[in-house]
Write a structure and sequence with these properties.
Length: 607
């Protein structure tokens, strides 16, 4: 992407600062004008007071110089402060918008990306883009104005001498251009390495127990070292380039000033210029080079920021997988029916469908358990119900309303999800329970915890509900974390409850402690339970078997064959049979309830 294209992409985050930008630019221009005028006063002082030794000629130009310097100082301070405010507000806006956007992206986006690299884009890359768009604009404007003013003043004093000293200006452009191309390459590498470092650290620390248990600390350190070394090399190359540029410019600048002084001696001897005039001229030429040098350096900063800008544009170009055009809302109520009507779905980028014409009805207030082999499409049902994705074909309704006609927010307010991973956030127990209902009172939080059978163990924690849990809830056992997530679901007061493997990884006793509150919850809500654990079947009104992306069998749990075609697992609970590739093909015993029967159901419930 060109700098112009990038600038246009990020301009919307700066647009509202137009007045401030103009004000800051005006103040910084005023500061440059003050500098130009101050040099002029220096010339007047030299020629009229210094050269003649007349003290009376000193006061007026000295007072003017002081006034001009004070004005310049105020303008520099106000302009700089205003510019910093603009830059920081731009950062706030861009980071906020980016985060808001990324939060709407579908699960597969996060599954395919390293978390650390995403985090790095929110820090270093956003700041680099600020230099490209906000500070860059002001710095360029003031540098250009500085060049025009000082060059103008030098031309005004002695146009022939000025042209002679400008002859070296193209050398600057050439040097800047050469440096820019190289800087761009190393900056892209530096940004990528920076993202990889964040990824390596985040990954290693998130899985630190596994790393320690497998004695893989050295390998993890090595991984980090490789990325750090890559970053180190890119940084050194960057430093080499940026450190080389100013001395090169200084050499060119010194040649110019010496040239002016050399020619000046001759001009003074011929009385074509005064000493003050020559000194002022040399000062203008000297002042001319820093903004020229700045322009070159801005080009380099901008080039470096392009790599960061492209990484942000890549994120901003990712589209959410559902369009939230629906405005529909549902009338308040506790029991709602769900229907999947011939639902087909293929994940973006996948070559096989996850659901193939799935029909399923969960009646209002019913407790349906969905089971089936791994990869059958069970969790996909939950993702479609919460509209992380829209079906590729068919439709899903809640209380008769097509999900795509409802606003996503209204829909998600209706559904409480207890996901497979019992997520715990950095914060207190109370914060964690109230995560989905932040305005809940302490009494409501405690009531939800009681209902989820969590109140007792929370009280035993060092600070009760105010105990800080830490990012991954290390203080809690798996079952306790699960009960916190149940309390969270209870507090949301949603009409539909979706539970994805609520007893996964728990021993028999912990699973029982999760079951009791789950039963209470399901009594007042339409419940969709996704699980391999056939022990849970007894809780449900109906068990639905999904395989190959569609419903292949269903019926009441009472009609499950003894043991549900299951063996006892080492923890004493029954689980579905280990890979029974040619299962009877029929999970339910025949009776007068019509059930779907298939020739052969390759169930392999155990994961
Ligand atoms: N983000 C994704 N991108 C592509 N394919 C996916 C994605 N998530 C799931 N799938 C595929 O969709 C199919 C159904 O997956 P799903 O997670 O719904 O199965 P499941 O029945 O819940 O399995 P499990 O019991 O192991 O959790 C699988 O073939 C899976 O590989």
């Amino acid at each position: 992407m060109t700098t112009g294209e990038l600038f246009r992409r990020f301009w919307p985050y700066l647009r509202q600062e137009r007045a401030g930008l103009a004000g800051a630019a005006a103040l910084l221009v005023l500061a440059a004008v003050a500098d130009t005028a101050a040099i002029w006063m220096f010339m007047v002082l030299t020629d009229e007071a210094l050269a003649t030794g007349d003290i009376n000629a000193f006061w007026a130009p000295a007072a003017s110089w002081l006034g001009i310097a004070a004005l310049g100082a105020v303008a520099t301070f106000c302009g700089g402060y205003l510019a910093a405010g603009i830059a920081e507000r731009f950062l706030l806006r861009l980071r906020g918008a980016l985060y808001g956007h990324v939060q709407e992206l579908p699960p597969h986006f996060f599954a395919r990306r390293a978390g650390g690299d995403l985090v790095a884009r929110f820090s270093g890359d956003v700041e680099a883009v600020e230099r490209l768009v906000a500070s860059g604009v002001l710095e360029t404007a003031t540098a250009v104005v500085g060049v025009v003013l000082y060059a103008g003043a030098a031309l005004y004093l002695r146009w022939d001498l000025a042209l002679l000293s400008f002859a070296l200006a193209p050398a600057f452009c050439l040097v800047a251009r050469k440096f820019s191309a190289r800087i761009r390459t190393v900056s892209t590498e530096e940004r990528a390495a920076n993202g990889a470092i964040s990824t390596a650290v985040a990954e290693g620390l998130t899985n630190v127990e596994l790393v320690q248990a497998c004695n893989q600390q050295e390998r993890q350190s090595q991984k980090l070292h490789e990325q750090s070394y890559r970053w180190f090399r890119a940084k050194l190359a960057q430093a080499r380039l940026t450190a080389l540029y100013p001395p090169l410019v200084t050499v060119v600048e010194t040649v110019c000033v010496l040239l002016v002084i050399g020619v000046g001696i001759w001009e003074i001897a011929a009385q074509r210029i005064s000493i003050g005039g020559l000194m002022a001229f040399a000062a203008y030429i000297g002042y001319l080079y820093p903004p020229l040098q700045n322009l070159g350096q801005i080009t380099m900063t901008v080039t470096a920021a392009r790599a960061a800008g492209e990484r942000l544009v890549e994120l901003l170009d990712e589209r959410p997988s559902v369009a939230d055009a629906g405005r529909g809302r549902l009338v308040p109520g506790r029991r709602r029916g769900i229907r999947f009507e011939r639902v087909g779905f293929t994940y973006p980028g996948a070559d096989r469908p996850a659901l193939t014409g799935l029909d399923l009805e969960v009646r209002p207030g019913e407790f349906a358990m969905v089971t089936g082999p791994s990869g059958a499409g069970k969790s996909t049902l939950a993702k479609l119900l919460l509209r992380f994705y829209d079906p590729t074909s068919g439709r899903i309704t809640l209380d008769g309303a097509d999900l795509s006609d409802l606003s996503v927010r209204a829909l998600r307010d209706e559904i409480a999800l207890v996901p497979q991973e019992a997520a715990v956030f950095h914060g207190t127990v109370a914060d964690n329970i109230a995560f989905g209902a932040p305005s809940a009172t302490r009494a409501e939080v405690v009531a939800a915890a009681r209902e989820a059978d969590a109140d007792e163990f929370v009280h035993a924690l060092p600070d009760g509900y105010d105990t800080e849990l830490g990012e991954r809830g290390a203080l809690l056992s798996g079952g306790q974390r699960r009960r916190i997530t149940l309390a969270r679901a209870i507090l949301r007061g949603a009409s539909v409850l979706v539970l994805d493997e609520p007893t996964n990884g728990l021993d028999a006793a912990s699973a029982q402690r999760v079951l009791e509150p789950l039963r209470r919850l399901a009594r007042t809500r339409t419940t969709l339970l996704i699980s391999h654990d056939l022990d849970l079947a007894a809780e449900a009104d109906r068990v639905v078997v999904v395989d190959g992306g569609r419903v292949v069998d269903q019926g009441p749990p009472a009609h499950l064959p003894p043991g549900g075609g299951a063996d006892a697992d080492p923890q004493g609970r029954s689980v579905a049979s280990p890979p029974t590739r040619h299962f009877s093909g029929q999970l339910f015993a025949p009776d007068d309830t019509p059930t779907v029967r298939l020739p052969a159901l390759p169930l392999s419930f155990r994961r």
